[in-house]
Specification:
The protein is of the alpha/beta class. It contains 15 helices and nine strands. The protein folds into two domains: 188 residues, Glucose-6-phosphate isomerase like protein, domain 1 (Rossmann fold); 148 residues, Glucose-6-phosphate isomerase like protein, domain 1 (Rossmann fold), CATH 3.40.50.10490.
């Protein structure tokens, strides 16, 4: 069943999100439960992260690179955003088969791959050994762990949990941030993550699938994007990784195109495309922001929102809950994951299935069948 193609009233659509049996019939792999366990994943990741990673501290790092794609890219953007606030060393996500030319003996590289077999990460890891780059590996196993051990590269072993894709972000980002704190890139302590875990467990009650739509923020936002292309924006550089995560989760879970950007950048280019678009009904906008947003960008934010609404787009401003920036970032990720799942339910698509990505990953394996006919 594809709900998007059915002409249903708003009341009928809302009922779908309040029908637990219907949700279970669409979410056959129970992705909802994996998303709901995000606080417990964070708790485990914080408790199991080594208190000290051996890195030659006599080296002065000129830059830090986070190597990986998909969920790892989100992790890299999050580390960069937090580091940009107080750090003294630039953090740069690297999302390709090749290391940039500037990566060398003074560049600390984090190689992050949940499976340990991501081909882009493995390609860059081999190059890093030839260049003599200091490195840390974060993985659940695979070739990456084997090669790291053989080359005396520190390994943070993370829990292997199914499915091996976008539900495991906490296992990857928490050790990345904690190790970043050990080397002075970000200011966090383990207790900061435990406080965030406690906060998310409280928030989980109001976002639960059993909570009716009128009292469930995630379900309301999913309805906002019903039968539309999601446009996810933020007014702060700190939330770049959050809006990127929303985009990726809409792509994989809800199987829809989605776009993300942030101010002030999007008001220098994308806003013109929005204004020139004659099919506003096919796109819906959401702006994520910190609750304590008070800075020089306020006027730019207010004007941009007014321009979008004036043009007739469906629009939502979503302040991210939390007592500090760490809580707001992880609340934003948790909220977006659930929104994407509820949108998948509305569309009648299995949120866990990503068959095309699996085929692309297996393209070099024996017996692979081309997409071409």
């Amino acid at each position: 069943m594809n709900v998007v193609n059915d002409k249903k009233s708003e009341g009928e659509v809302k009922k779908l999100l309040d029908d637990i049996e219907y949700i279970r019939s669409i979410d056959r792999g129970n992705l909802y439960t994996l998303i709901e366990r995000m606080p417990e994943q964070m708790e485990h990741a914080a408790a199991s992260c080594p208190k000290q990673i051996f890195i030659n501290r006599d080296r002065k790092f000129s830059a830090i690179g986070v190597v990986g794609v998909g969920t790892t890219r989100v992790c890299g953007e999050l580390l960069k955003s937090f580091s940009d606030l107080e750090g003294t060393i630039p953090v740069i996500p690297i999302n390709d088969y090749s290391l940039p030319n500037w990566a060398g003996r003074t560049t600390l590289l984090f190689f992050v791959s949940f499976s340990g077999n991501t081909e882009e990460v493995m390609s860059c890891f081999e190059q890093s050994r030839m260049r003599g780059c200091p490195a840390v590996v974060i993985t659940s196993g695979g070739r990456l762990e084997r090669d790291a051990v053989q080359n005396n590269v520190p390994v943070v072993k993370i829990r292997k949990e199914k499915p091996q894709n976008r539900t495991v972000l906490p296992y990857m980002i928490v050790p990345l941030l904690l190790i970043g704190a050990q080397i002075g890139v970000v200011p966090f302590k383990q207790e900061d993550f435990l406080q965030t875990v406690r906060f998310l467990k409280i928030q989980r009650e109001s976002l639960d699938a059993h909570q009716k739509t009128e009292n469930n923020r995630a379900k309301k936002i999913a309805l906002h994007f019903y039968d539309s292309i999601p446009l996810v924006y933020t007014d702060g550089a700190l939330y770049r990784g959050v809006v990127l995560r929303w985009q990726y989760q809409f792509n994989e879970n809800a199987k829809v195109l989605a776009y993300s950007s942030w101010l002030p950048e999007m008001s220098h280019n994308e806003i013109v495309g929005l204004y020139g678009n004659h099919k506003q009904a096919h796109a819906a906008c959401v702006f994520l922001s910190g609750e304590g947003r008070r800075n020089e960008s306020n006027k730019r934010f207010d004007f941009t929102c007014s321009a979008i609404k004036e043009k007739g787009y469906s629009f939502l401003h979503v302040p991210l809950a939390g007592d500090d920036e760490l809580q707001r970032v992880f609340y934003g990720i948790y909220l977006g994951d659930l929104v994407s799942l509820y949108l998948a339910i509305l569309r009648g698509v299995d949120p866990q299935s990503v068959g095309l990505i699996d085929r692309i990953r297996l393209k070099d394996q024996p017996g692979f069948k081309s997409l071409e006919r």
